[in-house]
Specification:
The chain is an all-alpha fold. It contains eleven helices and no strands.
């Protein structure tokens, strides 16, 4: 491009105009070819993603339908129904919002009858997370508070960690990073001694990402390095990917492009 402009700008080289226009034509054809190839690749990727998601949705629907058939045809206790509805709701969660709300609400009713704290927490979690995906934050906050209360009343530290994970995600999604960090730190405060816990590992990375987004790369570095060490030690792929991605951003912010 530079060569074409410099040549065309020089009137002294008028005898070379034929070469200039020929060169321009070749360059434009090359750009067009590259653009079309890139667009074809993008379209192919989207088509493959669509096919994969469609196949996944069909498989999930078949699984959910088989569970619904059991619920509708078998005689069972309220607790057994609640457990099946929990599986059904989980299968729909995040990709089929209407059915998540429908079966989550039905299952929650049975769980409340049984006063099963774990199942109550799960239904609040599924429904609240779906409202968060919809950006219905006011309603999501109601379920968020309910699931935290249910988790803490259960005395199960794993559930408490999951509840605060959901709370952190809720605030981070809205850009409220200080509240998100406070929520993620609660996961570390309720550490149950299991360093291999996915929620425990990911919490470090989420805290680091929040600090990075708040413009504090040095603080972020501490938590992201901790996530990387734990993720590699226990083979947690999400933590490995998150830590290396965020560490790249942090080192750029610190001026160390090579690292």
């Amino acid at each position: 491009g530079t060569a074409v402009r410099e040549t065309a700008a020089s009137r002294k080289n008028s005898h070379k105009w034929g070469i200039v226009f020929r060169l321009r034509h070749i360059i434009l054809q090359h750009i067009k070819h590259q653009f079309l190839c890139k667009m074809k690749r993008i379209v192919a990727i989207f088509l493959l993603a669509f096919v994969a998601l469609s196949a996944f949705a069909e498989e999930v629907n078949r699984y959910a339908d088989s569970l619904l058939h059991i619920v509708q045809t078998k005689r069972m206790t309220d607790l057994e129904r609640a457990k099946l509805y929990a599986d059904i709701t989980e299968s729909y969660c995040a990709h089929d919002m209407p059915n998540t709300f429908k079966y989550g609400t039905m299952g929650l009713e049975y769980a409340l009858r049984c006063d099963d704290k774990t199942l109550i927490f799960l239904f609040y979690n599924y429904i609240g997370s779906t409202y968060t995906y919809r950006c219905s934050y006011d309603t999501a906050k109601v379920y968020l508070d309910l699931q935290v209360a249910a988790a803490e009343s259960s005395g199960n530290k794993k559930l408490v960690q999951k509840a605060w994970q959901a709370a952190g995600n809720f605030y981070a999604r809205q850009g409220q990073f200080i509240l998100a960090v406070e929520s993620y730190l609660n996961i570390l405060k309720h550490f149950d001694g299991d360093e291999s816990s996915r929620d425990y590992i990911i919490a470090h990375g989420n805290i680091g990402e929040c600090y990075r987004r708040m413009g504090n790369p040095k603080r972020a570095l501490h938590y992201l390095e901790r996530e990387r060490v734990l993720a590699e030690q226990y083979g947690e792929p999400t933590g490995i990917g998150q830590s290396y991605r965020e560490l790249g951003y942090v080192y750029l912010a610190l001026g160390d492009a090579d690292k």
